[in-house]
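Below sits the subject:
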Amino acid sequence: YSFCTLLVTMRVALLLAAVACAAGHQPWTASMKHFGHSIKNGAISEGQEVTVFEYSCNDPPCAITQMQVPSIYPASGQPWDWEHGILSFSIDGNNNFSMSLLEMAFEGYNGAQGTGAADGSPWGLSTFGKTAKTGGVYSTLRIPFSASIKITLRMSPQAKGTNTYWFVVRGLTSYRVTLGDVILPANAKLNIQRFGPQQVQPYQLIPMLNISSDANGALVGVVLNSVSTDYTYLEACMRLVDANGEVSFLSSGGEDYFMSSAYFDEGMFKTENSGLTFFDGKGSLSAYKVHTRDFLPLMPSDSLVFRVGEKTGGCGSLGACPDQYCSSQEPKEHVHHEDVKMSNNITYSTMVVYYTWSAQQEHGGQRSFVDYLFQAADSGYLTEAEVASVMDKPSIKEHAQEYLAACGATCFRAANDKKSRLAALMIRKLL
């Protein structure tokens, strides 16, 4: 190579790295290492909780990047009940959440097993899927942690005897979670909130998600399971309500939120954005909506609220879905609606998956070493190549951390900051 060719090659590499970061991706570094495990023909008995994986993160942040449970085979003579097996996650020393094997694939509990398109045939997307009648559930949903993770498995509470299971897990160290095209903070954590199963009443508002007052976050996805004798409850609009009670409408109807129409009159479908995983044509369904390409940030004290049926009219409020656009000066009420006759025997069960991170840490609390470096690249104090070099050389990490500690919690956040410029200069000298 000539010097000019080498220079052009380096510029192209840096440009590609910059484009990757801008698109929500992150550059490879030598500290980004694989970890994982698999179990074949594992034994699990009724009432037993088996540890299937543990890992301590030495180069935070770390994340689980893929999980798969090929199946849980029943004891001889026992019925299949793999879909109600339960995975539990203890993250950084806390018992964070559990999910059934069906929930891992965002598959609804209605009509789980089957061999035809109408009752749960194999399907798969980049984020999750269910590819076998007797299991085949997988997920690439990122589960971040900074210190440790422990995953345990329980078979269905109804299963008897000793069952046989298969399990696969993979992850990466020094890896920031990306949701769609947004790189999340290094201290992001995965969470689940549920409602039901519970019988609900016409026009009842359903609290699907409540964010704490000290957290920011991002919505990952929603799963709805509903059982009824008709679909009129799908008139409901999805609402995001902020700390001041202001309502943002996320849909113009229930099936609209799941990116369909007319009470799902084309039947089942599965896409990267949404899907209908069960539909009996009589009033019961299971559906999911994923916000990877439809990024929805969550602010402190935000609430996600669904409904049973709907009242419609005016500019929209917590009590009614709007039938027009209104400027901020127009009144919020003026509700006129037609009563839709609904069944009094409706059951809702929902699961909401979301990331949160400490609002205090985001605005100046304790930050990880990697978070400092990514912020330095985002703000232009260091190039992507310089950040990669720092992370590739453990010998200079200790000195770099001293400079960042002296710089303070707001280091690299503000443009043209004197302390940030000095910290970047000292890190360059280390290189």
About this structure: Residues 6-22, 112-118 have pLDDT under 50 and may be disordered. The first strand starts at residue 34 and ends at 45. The radius of gyration is 24 Å. The chain has eight helices and 24 strands.
